Prior knowledge:
Blueprint: H1 2-27, E1 35-36, E2 39-40, H2 41-60, H3 68-82, H4 90-113, H5 117-143, H6 148-154, H7 172-192, H8 196-216, H9 219-228, H10 231-235, H11 241-260, H12 264-271, H13 273-278, H14 285-296, H15 309-313, H16 326-354, H17 358-374, H18 384-397
Helix pairs in contact: 1-2, 1-5, 2-4, 3-4, 3-16, 4-18, 5-7, 5-8, 7-8, 7-9, 7-17, 8-11, 9-17, 14-16, 16-17, 17-18
Amino acid sequence: xxxxxxxxxxxxxxxxxxxxxxxxxxxxxxxxxxxxxxxxxxxxxxxxxxxxxxxxxxxxxxxxxxxxxxxxxxxxxxxxxxxxxxxxxxxxxxxxxxxxxxxxxxxxxxxxxxxxxxxxxxxxxxxxxxxxxxxxxxxxxxxxxxxxxxxxxxxxxxxxxxxxxxxxxxxxxxxxxxxxxxxxxxxxxxxxxxxxxxxxxxxxxxxxxxxxxxxxxxxxxxxxxxxxxxxxxxxxxxxxxxxxxxxxxxxxxxxxxxxxxxxxxxxxxxxxxxxxxxxxxxxxxxxxxxxxxxxxxxxxxxxxxxxxxxxxxxxxxxxxxxxxxxxxxxxxxxxxxxxxxxxxxxxxxxxxxxxxxxxxxxxxxxxxxxxxxxxxxxxxxxxxxxxxxxxxxxxxxxxxxxxxxxxxxxxxxxxxxxxxxxxxxxxxxxxxx
Length: 433
């Protein structure tokens, strides 16, 4: 009897933790806007979900077996912590370590809670809906004339570019890449949804999201979005005619929004991309990269320390810029060892996605390819969207199609949970259905 009540309480705690995780992913794209006690609401939700999950794990004594990819992530975090011993900026390294530990905890939460495919789909829907709200707010800011420069000015930061749009607390380039990476997710959710209204909702999300990407004026996000939209030709042939017609209408909606909503200044910015690639500095990025590579020559093996890139390039340029390239940032901060760990992690993620079923394979390969291109111009190795996508991919790849079931205890039985990789013993006398 005691074991029965223990299993029931464990189930309730797990569902509470899962609800908190869904709330966190929903708030994540615009988490800096709502505040509660001077603290972002998303962080409160994340902390609550983590605390409940730890309590559940303590009560049940259950834990899923980790994969090689989890250990690669943990190794990257461990190397970052170890770099405190030789860091050129110890304060920045300490801050980065704290961020990495939180992100690793986030991945663990998704792994422990999203044990079935339905739960993974729930997390995908929560995140995609949050992205939809972020894109809607971006369009609202455009309609009301609130540019990114105005948002920066409210924080006391001057910015000369008056033609780009974003949301409060989020850089235009970061927002653009978040939206671009979510495009395959919206198409996948439209395919997997059972209800017509749900399918229509996700196709509308796609149009809204692409419109917002245009409004950010982010050229890197535009390229990433083009790669992410390979999801359409990869899947359109396997869709029913109703879905094909809806997809065609969505494309028409995107074209109309592009023609009538996007300001000419943003189109001019996009058209300058080829010139910037061949003759420009990619908004001073090439100068920042050269300064980082110069510092790497003296710290090639272990790097300058996690988070120390800005302090390092300050000796060459006048502003402590971040790398604006994830791969170069890890190479300079954690040396060849850290770069090899990151490359191994990304390659393993691609391989894991390749082994999934067709629609899931298309989803995650498009997201990973979009991420790889987008982060070549952004410092995203410690950003939440990066680790959320990594965690969701792992949870999806190892999820089970069966639901989680809790059985009434046999005198000799222990609670058995489907969907986990480590099971507790189930005697043959306990029913299996």
